[in-house]
Amino acid sequence: MAGVAEELKPAYLLTGSDRPKIDRALHRLRSRFGEDAIERLSARETSGEDAVAACNAMGLFATGGRLVFVDEVERWKAADVKVIADYLVAPAPETVLALVGEGLRKDSPLAKALAKKGEVLAYDVAKSGLPKWVGEQFARHGVKATAEACRALVELVGDNLQEIATEVDKLSAWAGQDPIGPDEVELLVGARADVPPFVLTDAWGRRDVAAVLSAAESILERSARSGEVHALVGRLAAHVRRVQACQNLDLAGVRPRDAAGELKMHPFATEKAFGQSRNFSTEELRTAIVRLADLDLALKGGSRLPNDLELERTLVAITREA
Q1: Among residues 89, 94, 52, which one has the least CA distance to residue 70?
Q2: Which one, of 321, 164, 318, lies nearest residue 244 by Cα?
Q3: pLDDT value at residue 5
Q4: In terms of DSSP bridges, do strands 11-15 and 95-101 run parallel, antiparallel, or are they unpaired?
Q5: pLDDT of residue 292
Q6: How far is CA 113 from the centre of its chain?
Q7: Residues 76-122: tens digit of each pLDDT
């Protein structure tokens, strides 16, 4: 592994919320070294002095490239950072120091120290960009997932990218070459976020007014997106239309398992939608779709009433028993 010092920087700092991408970057870096040339440390037990000592010790006996990898460096104090900065003035030849930490800004003392002689790699994903990021992870597996499926996965799991990536791996293995929609996500992913999206639609389907209002309030309270109320109405309207389609097929004598293929829904989701359709009359479902369309217009400036009041009035009207 001669010439590593010429090909690689003497030090790297990897930080950001995108831990799966950080792990891939570390894998690429580790692949440049033999397994016996890598020392793995954690800032839980390792000080800056310990990390520098590991770099210098390896440098004394190195016959090729060496890698010292230290995780959780956000735990280090100012004294540790100073030791690292002093070491980088004259780093050990043929040795690469890789530091990984969460929440380290580019203007932090450690990042500034690394930037002088090494490289800072920041991999961040904004909360508003999580559904797009999820779609990219599915694409890495060669799996097509709808935008609704990606949003549903974020709503079920939360904003922990490592956990989301794990669920993407599982869903991709299950799907094979088949596309993934929100029904598959809701069926196969265990809810870990506060309020999964189907809590609202399930409450509406069983005509539980109090549960519908509670679910809508919780979803909006925990969302950081300014347009979440519009997304909530859109998801509910799409669900009501699916239930209406199931009701029409049910009245025509089509069984749920036969309807699943025609509707491109998972059989479990189709069974549930058929059950919900029997709780409403044909006219009630037609009226619900019209009321949701009127609500969408009201939320876009068509009403002088506050958005939360318009939403509450509509949810009560389309859920309660006649």
Answers
A1: 52
A2: 318
A3: 41
A4: parallel
A5: 95
A6: 31
A7: 999 999 999 999 999 998 899 999 998 888 889 999 999 988 999 99
Residue type, 101: G
| The pair of three-digit structure tokens given for residue 107, joined into one six-digit string | 């203007």
The residue ranking higher by pLDDT, 268 or 298, is 298
Q: At 106, phi and psi to the nearest 5? A: -70, -20
- What is the DSSP code (8-state) at residue 320? S
Residue tagged 């799966």 (tokens): 20
Distance CA 103, CA 42 (A): 16
Return the amino acid letter for 27: H
Q: Which long-range contacts (CB under 8 A, 24 or more apart) does 107-112 make?
A: 109/78, 109/81, 109/85, 110/13, 110/73, 110/76, 110/81, 110/84, 111/13, 111/15
Are 142 and 39 within 8 A, CB to CB? no
Q: Which structural domains are found in the chain, ordered by start?
A: 4-122 (3.40.50.300), 129-319 (1.20.272.10)
What single-letter amino acid sits at 32?
R
Summarised one tens digit per residue, pLDDT across range 201-226 is 999 999 999 989 988 888 787 665 55
What's the rounded mean pLDDT across residues 266-293? 93
